[in-house]
Design goal:
Helices cover 31% and strands 15% of the residues. Helix 3 links the parallel strand 2 and strand 3. It is of the alpha/beta class. It has a 6-stranded mixed β-sheet. The protein contains 7 helices and 6 strands, in the order βααβαβααβαββα. Helix 2 runs parallel beside helix 3 and helix 5 packs across helix 6.
Amino acid sequence: MRPETVLYLVRHGESEANAAGRFAGQTDSPLTERGRAQAETVAEALREVRFDRVISSDLSRAHETAAAIARRQGLDVETIRELREIDMGEAAGKQIEDARQHPEWTPDGFLRWPGGESLEEALERAMGVLDRLVRESPGRKICIVGHGGVTRILVSHFLGLLPTLYRHPTPSTNTNITIVRTDGITYRVDALYDAGHLDQPPSPEERMPEPGAPEPGEGAI
């Protein structure tokens, strides 16, 4: 029987792009003061979880969030470039609300922007990292601090939904936690977008409903 590895997928704290309602993609948008406070809050919430490794995207908003978690664990942050957010190409820096007016935009579909990566490329990149980490650390507990878009693709993959993207009934808040268990062959989602550690209103990015979708709290993503 293969040992079970537990992955905690943690979204970074609020970034400047989140606060402004803009796509960041792979640009390095730093944490806001609120984002730093969120990082400390999620780190405190995870204090009693004994991680064997803390991994982060190389973008500062993820790395700074991971550093807050790692300090309480007595661990160093391991940085992996391949955990970066989806490459948004020409959409990086644009207002999310404006981009959602694109004629091919759908609430539960993936739109490849000019100069950006495809759904398949993003999934292959992220799964390559997860599979490698599980091979390296079977039976361990790993915290992976990354990005909302990539986590949504991974969750959709684990739930067998792709190419349709999973739509959560409440907004995907910064520093939300998704827990996944795996034997190295199959991945099982145990918790989705848990943000019970936060007692804050959503950021502008999180408040935006999809076109034609209900307001957050009424079934929007």
